[in-house]
Amino acid sequence: MLRTHNCGELRKAHLGQEVIICGWVQRIRDKGGRAWIDLRDRFGMTQLIFEEGSTSEQLMAIVRTLGREYVIRARGVVIERLSKNSKLSTGDIEVQVLHLEILNEAVLPPFLIDDETDGGDELRMKYRYLDLRRRPIRKNLELRHQVSRKTRFYLDSHEFIEVETPYLIKSTPEGARDFIVPSRMNPKQFYALPQSPQTFKQLLMVSGLDRYYQIVKCFRDEDLRSDRQPEFTQIDCEMSFVEQEDVLEMFEGLVNFLFKEVKRIELTKFPRLTYADAMKYYGSDKPDLRFDMRFVELNEVIGDTDFHLFNAAELIVGINAKDCGTYSRKKLDELIDFVQKTQVAATSLIYVKCKLDGSFKSSVDKFFDQDALSNWANLFKAKPGDLILILAGKKDLTRKALNDLRLEMGDRLGLRPSSKFCPAWIIDFPLLEWDEETKRYHAMHHPFTSPKNQYMDQVDKAPESIKASAYDLVINGVEIGGGSIRIHKRALQSKMFDALGFTKAEAEEQFGFLLGAFDFGAPPHGGIAFGLDRLCSLLGGAESIRDFIAFPKNSSGRDVMIDSPSLLDEEQLTALGINSEKK
Ligand code: ASP
């Protein structure tokens, strides 16, 4: 070893010892007769001291040639510091250097390698290896490592085995877009990278492996957002001989374990919310339950009215923003603007201020008297000082817009602290959803999801009303995981493909291997997959998943460090049989 200790290790107990430490120069302070270097490595920071008198002139001269981020190796004696630094684990000591070796020089980094940096996003990504030297980013990777490690521990202790499934698979039109890979040995043919190992993990159940997991890369060629990457990691799991309840219990256990081990937080039993209720009360299938502010529907109490917006509306629905009744005109205008910018409900925001004297002031005073407004306030359980915000219009769009407004109010009122965690299972999803554009049904989860028992014989009759044995785990408004009990019989799976508009030939061509496998004794099975990147960013209290991925892509799907994707030369294309045919 080039060193005896790392930079985070030395304490008073080492006083008087001769040690060798290596690392990067974080900072140099040169006060003439005395110089200090903060030496940094993954484990911490240790102060080196050089003093004229005890340090040779030759050594002093070397110190003066050093710059930031030089890699050095220092031998010296651990001494007690005169002025201690309680913020640093090594803050009681320093190393009086006897010998110093420059292991490598460094040019000036393009941004500050410090907790707070002056580097913008793009620059940090271009020099990601320098960004990763910064403590906050390193901490994120350490957290990620802990999450993976504890996940493996939990699943191992419940008899799951980790099995790798292939990355070069077959493209299917279901779900998101595939990334495709040309096959040189099979000209004009392509593999696809897996969007998830779904069919393989089901086949492993047919194989009798019983409990499978894999911490696995998945690939989806989708438009990117701050919480999406073209390649991301799932904790992918599957179990045999289980019902929905067994899966929920096993994986509530996993999430509880992770919070306890990684965050020292004991979560309470996860509430369950049906999809229908989540939509009705929060306008979203991933409600943020850190705060209540439930939707209240007003259609029935309002009935017929002269107010056109309400009369024409499929849904009139609102929230009560507590203690916002004193909002100024300016603040209300901001909210009105906000709603218009969400662009989902092309309707205006109606407000009712519950004044401290018990009276009401609303934007619809012309149409509704004090009695009517008081009636509404009762439904919202609004107290004097509260502010009722109402939207009206088409059901789905209005709910979506009110969900945005609810989250905005949650932010404004400080009701969404990153230190609070409110998980919930969302259950009873519809099996299928109608897509107006393609005029056909889509599987809401995926085509392998089983209907709930009571709907088993209805797949070909009343697809609209069928509920699925599908579930999502949502924490703080973020979808952390999702899964389902699967179909395990050929006949039902075929009916499902029919309902999704596959011809028999298409179903056979794309999923014949799975249907065939079901003929050989497939056990009842089900599972779930968690988004590891999202789970880590949630545990780390950050919004973006990028900071929890060592080498992420930017919002155009590019890796700006290695400059990928890139063009191939004609020769490579020819070898792959995909060169542009000249006309
Ligand atoms: N494969 C599914 C997904 O990626 C998860 C599951 O059903 O287990 O969403």
How would you characterize the overall build of this protein?
This protein has 583 residues and is α+β, with helices and mostly antiparallel strands. The protein has three domains: 12-104, Nucleic acid-binding proteins (OB fold (Dihydrolipoamide Acetyltransferase, E2P)); 138-272 and 424-548, Bira Bifunctional Protein, Domain 2 (BirA Bifunctional Protein, domain 2); 291-416, 2-Layer Sandwich (Gyrase A, domain 2). 29% of the residues lie in helices and 24% in strands. Strands 6-9-10-22-21-20-17-11 form an eight-stranded mixed β-sheet, with helices on both faces. A hairpin with a 4-residue loop joins strand 18 and strand 19. The model has no long low-confidence stretch (mean pLDDT 95). The structure holds aspartic acid. Aspartic acid (ASP) binds next to strand 21 and strand 22.
